[in-house]
Amino acid sequence: MYRRLILSCLLALLIGTLHLKCNNSSDKTSGTKYKQYYIKGESLYTVHCSNCHQKDGSGLGLLYPPLNQSDYMASNKQKVICIIRNGLQGEIKVNGKVYNKVMPPIPSLSDIEVAQIATYIYNTWTHQEGLMEVKDVSAVLQNCNTN
Ligand code: HEC
Fold first, then answer.
1. pTM of the model
2. CA 101 to chain CA mean position, Å
3. Per DSSP, what are the bridge partners of residue 93?
4. Domain tally for the chain?
5. Which residues in the chain show pLDDT less than 50?
6. I need a surface site. Which of 67, 92, 98, 131 has the fewest CB within 10 A?
7. How far apart are the CA of 70 and the centre of ligand 1, in A?
8. Are residues 56 and 8 in the same domain?
9. For residue 119, what are the domain limits?
10. 115 and 84 belong to one structural domain
11. Which of 53, 58, 63 to mutate to test the pocket of ligand 1 (most atoms within 8 A of CB)?
């Protein structure tokens, strides 16, 4: 009698745990994949981007625009994915300030590296866009010239 009760409790516990695990891995900001992308993205950012945009994403005067709180990033998600690999030049406006400098391309970045950097910059400071999957990023990268 008691044994059956204990057994069904254990079963309920097990199902509960499994359920939790499934929920977690599909969550856009707490799954293992998200964490891997984010951690890898952070170190790539340090190597390739922080010289100009700074570790805290604040940029540098009117030379390098900020990523922290950037309204440009918020409204140009696809374009930013292209910029990460292809660079950017010409006049842009970020948070009301005009920039007209050159960001050099980094052609050596693979699609997954671009996705990892995008995941990092879009989930740090004020941005909360969740995981940027490599398959979605690849699709955007293929259409960069036509954007
Ligand atoms: C040599 C300095 C330099 C490096 C390195 C660099 N950028 Fe930039 N970035 C710039 C400049 C300058 C602009 C503005 C270009 C313009 O005026 O058209 C810019 C623009 C941007 C923008 C759009 C504007 C904004 O502030 O939202 C994003 C996003 C961005 N960079 C992200 C990155 C990321 C991510 C990396 C690393 C993969 C990177 N940049 C590396 C100099 C740099």
1. 0.85
2. 24
3. 98
4. 2
5. 9, 16-25, 147
6. 98
7. 11
8. no
9. 31-146
10. yes
11. 53
